Every structure is written in C-alpha cells, then in structure tokens.
Write a sequence for this structure.
C-alpha cells in the first residue's frame, strides 16, 4: 500500500515538473531576449531605432533604423489577413454548414495537408511560380515584392483560420439556427446573421493564430520578398523583421549583432501583444 | 507551500537553461588522433564553413583528399564568407572559407590563399549585351543607368541582383568596381547559386557570381573586352578577381588532418583539381 502512495506522489511530481519546464522555457527566453536586446537600443536610442528609416548595418557609419522592417511586417500581415480571413471564414462556413459529408471530408483533408506543408516548400513554389507570374502580370522588372510575400503568407495562414473557425461554427447550438429558420430567415441570412456572430470568439481565435504565424514566418518570405531594406511598397523588394534577422545573423558581430537581438525583442513584443489580445478576446467570449 | 515549490522548481530549471548560454562554445573535436607510428595515415574530422562561391573548388579538393586519406571526414557548410570567418574566430569550424581578404578588424586569424577566382558579370541568356566597361557596371549597380538601351541592349529596365552584406563575392565586386555602399539592389540573395537562378529566370537581370559557379543557364559578359576565364585571371587581365582564402584561428592548434588538407590545397597535385573546378591556384 505504501508503494502505491509513493507512486502516486512521484507521478504527480513528474507532471508538475513537466508543466514547470514550459514555464521555465518561456521565462528563460523572455529574460534572455530582454537582456540581449536592451544594449543596442540603449546605444542607438529608442526613437532612432524604432522610427529610423535607414538600415545600413555593415556600412562604415552604420545606421540602425528598423521602421522599414516594422512597417513591412505590419503591412504584410495585414495584407495576408485581408486575403486570408474572408477566404478562410467562407471555407469554414462551407465545410461546416453547406458541403455534403463526402465533399467536406475531401476539402478537410486538403486543408490538413496544406497545414502540414513546410514553409520552405511554400517559399520554393513562390519563387518558381509566383515571382515570375507577378513579374509578367504587372510588367515589373523584378517579381520579388511585398505582393508575393502577402500571397504566400495568405495561403499559409488559411489552414489555421479554417480549422479553428470550422470547429467554432460546428459548436454553435442547433437551437440558434432552428430558431432563425422558424422566424423565416433563409440559409444565407442565418449563416451571416446568427451562426457567424455566435461563433465570433472562436473565429477571432483562429484569426489571431493566423496572424501569429504570418508575423513569425521567415523562410518562405525570405525566398519571395527580395530582402532589400526598403520602406515597404506593394511592388518593391522588402525585408520583414524576421528575414532581417535571418539574413544577417550568421556573420554579424558587435553592435550589428546586438541590433539583430533588438529586432528579435521587438518581434517578441509584437507577438506578446497579439497573445494578450487573443486572451482578452477569448475571455470575453467565455463570459457570454 | 505548493506555490513555493513551484517557484523554486522554475528558478532551478531556468538557471540550468541559462547556464548553458554562457559557457564558451565547445570547439568541435578536430580529430587530434596522433598519426599511426607504423604508417603516416591521417584520420579524424575536419569541419569547413563559409563561402558559397568556393563550393565547387572545396568539393573537388575534399573528394581528392579523401581518396588518399579515407579515414578523414571533411564537412563543408555553405554559409557565406562572413559567417565562415566568424566560425573560424569562434572555433565552431576548423577551417573558415572566405572569398575575400581578411579585413583589418578581423584579428587573431591566419589566412592562406589557395586560389584566385574571377567574379563573372552575368546577365540573362536573352540579353543582347556582350560587353560592359567598369564604368557602365558601376552605373548599372548604383542606379545611374536604368535602361538596358543605355549600354547597348534592348529598351528594357534593369533589375539588379546581388548578395547579402556579409558576402565575400559582394565585397570583392564592390571594392574592385568602386561602388562600396552605393549599390541599389532589387534583390539581395544569400548564395551564389541563388543569384545565378534569379538571373536566369529574369530577362532584365544583371548580377555577379563566382566564375566557378557560372553555368550555361546565364551569359557571362566581357568586362572591358576581356572574357572571364582561368587564363585571364592568372595573367591579371580580367579585372574583377578575388582570392579564395582558408582562414584558421592563430590561437588554436590545428589538427594534423586539417594541416594536411591545407597543404594539399597548395600542392602541385591540386593545380589541376582547382582548375577543373573553375578557379586558378594561387602561386
């Protein structure tokens, strides 16, 4: 009998430790990021760093303004959401409400496959197919651009939005929809005015998940966006916060390396803010 | 009580994780097995890291060296000259590979020049331009010349493709042409191969790449009337050339295998190997 009690205690300790490992990892990463990112910001000056428009890290007189990167990441994510959110939500509605079981199963499999494709493959296909297409379509001299990155990101965040929204839509109580039909609404009216608002918080969670993925994507974007530190323009070569770090980290030294850590800190803070918003939105949904 | 235990556990685990960050990187064991007393056979691992332009040359040297010393394993990571030099400094690689000379700020390193390489100016195969002067090249890359018709080509815009800031190829090109920090690029890619691919798929593109990597996918134009070949590099008539350097740390003892590899690269045996790979052995 004693042994059983010991086993119980040991197992609960083990679970406890596993849980603590996650917390420890998050705390360690946060602390390390803050400690490594602060020196460069102090050296360059907060406003010069965040609002400066020129990034010349290897010049004889280096300048470390990351506004182009911040704006590019923001525009890129917004653009990806502009395309990805409507398509994602409509697809989720299709899967949850409109499609027959067999069609729904096929589309579902396709969505899950899309979720599993590694980002490098997205980047490769973007580079081989999308970039020349954009070059020809818009008569540009060079196809790598913010537009290419936005399209690739939109396709990448679709699976997150679709699966979470679909789950949220399927969880809407049937009584809501039946009541709507009883009052004489058509199917489309019911979907747009009853089901989607009822599944609001789940859909919001899916969107925030998609945003998180879009803002953190480096590999796929590096292959289609051109990687030049310009202020963003739809058809200009741009660099995101993530690709700025990826491009220079392997050979950076001194202040340049510290500046890259600071970019990582800014990115980290962005994602923290997004997570806080997510939690706030979810909590509001639960209260209803 | 539980909260205290939780907090303490978190701190202990966090400290353990943080301890890992501060320790200096473990130098990869460079196989310091003393040579056999019966026969001078080398063994161990040599890690090389750096220039993407040197890929063909290093790959052929590795192949030939391994044929004579089958017990030695040599790895090559193509990360760019800047990263190669950093790797040699930090000790994460035995030999750093750089396609440019060391800067004054890069101290504590020994540089051994094993070959000379030409930087070919490449354009798309459909481009009718055959020759460019250094002035025209400078104009194209700084954005002064924006249309191919200004240098004898079709009426089309110019797309400038280059490498990332730490690249040895970019450094060599910009310093010889005299446009350091003045180039305006449409794309900054991270390897010589990527530049060649980008130029081959864009009819308006111009770029630069190591001679050893140039293939029939792209067209190499003559610079000041001189074609980029091994002969013109050797006799110096082709202007845009740079050294292939093997960088080692001055403070760390190099393994017997690594020393032998560097000596092999400088030997007469390697002349033909390096020539076949598209570069010229430095004399």
């Amino acid at each position: 009998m004693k042994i059983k009690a010991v086993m119980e205690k040991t197992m609960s300790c083990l679970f406890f430790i596993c849980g603590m490992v996650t917390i420890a990892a998050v705390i360690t990463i946060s602390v390390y990021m803050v400690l490594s990112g602060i020196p460069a910001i102090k050296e360059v000056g907060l406003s010069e760093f965040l609002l400066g428009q020129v990034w010349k890290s290897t010049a004889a007189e280096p300048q470390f303004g990351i506004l182009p990167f911040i704006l590019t990441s923001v525009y890129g994510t917004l653009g990806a959401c502009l395309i990805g959110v409507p398509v994602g939500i409509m697809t989720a509605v299709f899967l949850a409400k409109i499609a027959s079981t067999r069609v729904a199963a096929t589309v579902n499999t396709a969505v899950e496959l899309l979720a599993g494709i590694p980002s490098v493959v997205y980047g490769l296909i973007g580079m081989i197919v999308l970039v020349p297409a954009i070059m020809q379509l818009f008569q540009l001299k060079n196809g790598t651009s913010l537009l290419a990155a936005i399209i690739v990101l939109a396709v990448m965040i679709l699976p997150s939005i679709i699966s979470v929204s679909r789950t949220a839509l399927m969880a809407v109580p049937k009584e809501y929809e039946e009541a709507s039909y009883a009052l004489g609404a058509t199917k489309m009216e019911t979907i747009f005015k009853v089901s989607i608002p009822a599944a609001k918080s789940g859909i919001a969670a899916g969107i925030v998940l998609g945003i998180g993925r879009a803002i953190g994507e480096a590999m796929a974007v590096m292959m289609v966006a051109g990687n030049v530190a310009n202020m963003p323009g739809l058809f200009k070569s741009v660099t995101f916060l993530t690709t700025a770090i990826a491009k220079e980290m392997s050979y950076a030294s001194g202040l340049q390396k510290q500046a890259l850590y600071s970019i990582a800190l800014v990115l980290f803070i962005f994602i923290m803010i997004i997570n806080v918003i997510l939690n706030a939105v979810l909590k509001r949904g639960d209260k209803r | 009580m539980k909260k205290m235990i939780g907090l303490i556990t978190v701190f202990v685990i966090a400290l353990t994780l943080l301890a890992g960050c501060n320790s200096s990187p473990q130098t990869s064991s460079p196989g310091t097995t003393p040579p056999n007393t019966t026969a001078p056979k080398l063994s161990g691992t040599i890690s090389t890291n750096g220039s993407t332009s040197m890929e063909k040359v290093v790959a052929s040297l590795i192949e030939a060296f391994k044929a004579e010393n089958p017990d030695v394993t040599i790895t090559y990571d193509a990360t760019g000259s800047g990263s190669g030099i950093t790797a040699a400094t930090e000790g994460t690689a035995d030999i750093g590979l750089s396609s440019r000379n060391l800067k004054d700020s890069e101290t504590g390193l020994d540089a051994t020049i094993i070959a000379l390489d030409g930087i070919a100016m490449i354009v798309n195969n459909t481009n009718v331009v055959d020759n460019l002067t250094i002035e025209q090249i400078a104009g194209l890359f700084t954005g002064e010349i924006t249309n191919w018709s200004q240098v004898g080509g079709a009426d089309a815009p110019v797309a400038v493709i280059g490498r990332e800031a730490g690249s040895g190829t970019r450094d060599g090109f910009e310093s010889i042409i005299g446009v350091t920090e003045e180039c305006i690029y449409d794309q900054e890619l991270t390897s010589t191969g990527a530049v060649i691919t980008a130029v081959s798929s864009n009819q308006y593109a111009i770029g630069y790449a190591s001679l050893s990597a140039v293939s029939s996918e792209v067209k190499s134009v003559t610079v000041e009337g001189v074609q980029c070949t091994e002969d013109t590099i050797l006799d110096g008539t082709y202007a845009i050339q740079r050294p292939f350097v093997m960088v080692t740390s001055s403070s760390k003892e190099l393994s017997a295998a690594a020393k032998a590899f560097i000596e092999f690269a400088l030997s007469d045996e390697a002349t033909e190997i390096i020539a076949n790979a598209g570069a010229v052995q430095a004399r």
Notes: Residues 23-39 of chain B have pLDDT under 50 and may be disordered. The two ends of chain B are 74 Å apart (CA to CA). Residues 226 and 237 of chain B are 7 Å apart (CA to CA).
